[in-house]
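hi! just following up on the protien thing from before. the input was this:
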Amino acid sequence: LHAGDIVVELDGAFVVTTTAVQRLMVEDAIDRPIEITVWRNGALVDVITAPRELQGE
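and the predicted 3d structure came back as:
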């Protein structure tokens, strides 16, 4: 993802709040590939990534 990207969909589900993004990341997305659709520079862009759990310092 790039600075300024606006998350539109996560795994095909429309995102309307940041809470929805956080919920998916915590409940379902850690260490598995997910498709994220973002609005970037006037166009929709699909990105596939596998979020990882943050490690404590």
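The chain has one domain: 6-49.
The longest strand covers residues 34-40.
cheers
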